[in-house]
Amino acid sequence: MPYMALPLAVVYIKTYNMKPKNLNKIAEIEKAIAKKYGKEAVANPKSFWTDEKEEEYLEQLKEFYKEEYKKKEQKEKVEKDGFFLPKNLITKKNKRKCPVCEVFSFEIKDDLYMNKFECCFDCYIQHVQGYEERWLDGWRPLKDKEQN
C-alpha cells in the first residue's frame, strides 16, 4: 500500500513544497501519524459527517446567531438629547406623568429617570438616590391618601 489519497497528503505537499513524485514518503508519514494518533487523524473529516450531525449543527448555528443578535441589540446605543443611551432604555411612548408624585413633566432629564426608575428626577433625588436596591425591589413611598 504505497499511497493513500488523503487530505493530509495534499496539505503536506503544499506546506513543504514536495513534488507529488515522492508519494511513498507521504504514505510513510501518514502511516506514522495513524500509528501514533489513530486512523481518525489521517481520515477525511467529511467521512464522519452525517445528516443528523448537519441538522444539529444548523440548529446550534441558529441559536448562536439569535443570541448574538440579542446581545448586539442590547449594546446598541442611540443618541438622544446629546447623550448616548442603550436602545432598550428608550421607548417610543413618552411617559410624562410621574407615578409617584403625579406631576406632569416636559423636562428632558425626566425621560431617563422615567424609563429607568419609573419616577421623575425630583422623586429620584428624594426617594431613590442612595436606596436604588430597595427601589428596584419594589418599594414605593406612601401616597397622601394612604397616609391619612
Report on this structure.
- This protein has 7 helices and 2 strands.
- By secondary structure, it is mainly α.
- The relative contact order is 0.06.
- Helix 1 (7-16) crosses helix 2 (23-37) and helix 4 packs across helix 5 (121-128).
- The longest helix is centred in the middle third of the chain and has 25 residues, at 51-75.
- Strands 1-2 form a two-stranded antiparallel sheet.
- The radius of gyration is 33 Å and the shape is rod-shaped.
- It starts with 6 loop residues before the first helix and ends with a helix.
* Secondary-structure content class: mainly alpha
Q: Which range best describes the helical content: under 10%, 10-25%, 25-40%, 40-55%, 55-70% or over 70%?
A: 40-55%
Q: What is the residue-averaged pLDDT? A: 77
Radius of gyration: 33 Å
Task: Enumerate the strands of the largest sheet in spatial order, edge to edge or round the barrel.
Answer: 1-2
The largest pleated sheet is described as: 2 strands, antiparallel
Number of strands: 2
Low-confidence stretches: 1-6
**Based on CA inertia axes, which overall geometry fits?**
rod-shaped
Binned strand content: 5-15%
Distance between the termini: 98 Å
Oligomer: single chain
Succession of helices and strands: HHHEEHHHH
User: How many helical elements?
Assistant: 7
